[in-house]
Design goal:
single chain; TIM Barrel; about 50% helix; about 10% strand
Length: about 425
């Protein structure tokens, strides 16, 4: 069995964006306001994940602004303990596994003592969040080894030496991940075997930075599997695809069907939790889960189609009609075909005529209820877009405001406004 998850943020889910502030504007009152919002957003994300059977989720490190810094003087651990407990219960009730992943500046093997001290403080912060949520030992903190600093062997030893400075609670959470520049999965396995902790295999990093020792991807996954003890939970890996337009290591905008299914064919018989690192976040988590499901039916695809339909229409009217026809058979489950057509349509360049067609379809929800001035504003922006003197986003923003005003949930829950 394989579970799929996503990291930190969800697209198309209202009121789930994390807020922050600058060091210049930080005050206890501002922190209370932001933390209150962020914890509510996290609860919304947990509820969304439960509804969509997403059992793996990475919590944003930005949950508590300046959580590991002395500039945050708020006793947030005590002040928000009840909220953390409620969220933690919701996570446990959903059977969801959570994790956190500190950023690139949390470096345990730096030769700079100040950098290491900050890294230790940051890891303590992450552990506090997981502890306040009452997350069990399977909820991990993912970490990279760090830099080489001109001597990778010495840097690896320094990591192991600094490891001893971490508290037992933090050490019980840490898992190490390979990277795309310095530490291959072979290097990581050498370190985790010394420390007695798990290794997370990252597919994209591995494809960019192959170990000289060779070996197939599944062989490395099975090697990593040996590092996961029962108390660590199911083995976890990271899966992503290379962006066609970004630098090496940049994540693709979605998990593409063909490449994903080739990979899935290699791993489907291994019990794994697969964290998808991809720009469309939850959309790909739902997509991958539905593509490999043998328990769902066409109604699941119809719910997905309701969210995508106007985005498809503005890119490819022919794909729109093809998918509508595809979903007419109520006894079939054409998930792979559905998502293949979908991603091909969304990859097509936007043409004005198609976008105009979609705008008019969406406007249909308001033409009988919109006030005269709202109609004038919409068609003024609409005409300007048709004449190439206004941006499409300007017109869509007007439709979004109307959706909010008239509570058009069908549109608000769609991906048309993303």
């Amino acid at each position: 069995m394989i579970n799929f998850g996503y990291a930190c943020l969800a697209l198309g889910v209202a009121d789930t964006q994390m807020k922050s502030c600058t060091m210049r504007t930080i005050t206890p009152e501002r922190l209370r306001e932001i933390i209150t919002h962020n914890l509510r957003a996290l609860m919304q994300l947990v509820q969304y994940n439960k509804e969509h059977n997403i059992l793996l989720f990475r919590i944003s490190s930005d949950l508590i602004p300046f959580g590991s810094s002395t500039v945050n003087t708020l006793q947030w651990q005590e002040e928000f303990a009840d909220e953390f407990e409620k969220i933690g219960k919701a996570i446990a009730d959903a059977g969801m596994r959570i994790s956190m992943h500190p950023g690139q500046y949390t470096v345990m093997n730096s030769p700079d003592e100040n950098v290491v001290n900050r890294a230790i403080a940051d890891l303590e912060y992450h552990e506090q969040v997981l502890r306040l949520l009452k997350a069990d030992s399977t909820s991990k903190i993912i970490l990279h080894v760090g830099g080489a600093y001109g001597d990778k062997a010495a840097a690896s030893k320094r990591f192991c030496r600094n490891w001893e400075r971490l508290s037992d609670r933090v050490r019980s959470r840490i898992v190490l991940e390979n990277d795309e520049r310095i530490y291959t999965i072979f290097d990581v396995l050498n370190i985790v075997e010394q420390l007695g902790i798990p290794a997370v295999f990252d597919t994209l990093h591995h494809s960019i930075h192959l170990p000289s020792e060779g070996g197939a991807v599944t062989d490395w996954i099975l090697q990593c599997k040996k590092t996961w003890k029962l108390s660590d939970g199911r083995q976890k890996i990271h899966y992503s695809q290379q962006s066609l337009y970004g630098k090496p290591g940049a994540h693709s905008k979605t998990i593409y069907v063909e490449e994903f299914l080739r990979f899935y064919k290699e791993i489907y018989n291994i019990d794994l939790d697969v964290m998808l690192e991809v720009k469309d976040k939850n959309l790909s988590a739902v997509k991958c889960g539905l593509m490999v499901s043998d328990t769902n039916n066409v109604s699941c695809l119809e719910r997905e189609w309701a969210k995508y339909k106007y985005s498809v229409l503005e890119h490819s009217p022919s794909a729109y009609l093809t998918i509508r026809a595809l979903l007419k058979d109520k006894y079939a489950y054409p998930a792979v075909q559905f998502y293949s057509i979908l991603e091909q349509a969304l990859d097509q360049p936007l043409e004005t005529n198609n976008a105009v067609n979609a705008l008019l379809h969406v406007w249909g929800y308001f033409k009988k209820v919109a006030k005269l001035d709202e109609k004038k504003h919409f068609f003024s922006a609409f005409d300007k877009y048709k004449n190439n003197t206004a941006k499409l986003t300007t017109v869509k923003n007007q439709l979004y405001k109307l959706s909010k005003k008239y509570d058009a949930q069908y549109l608000l829950q769609s991906y048309y406004f993303l």
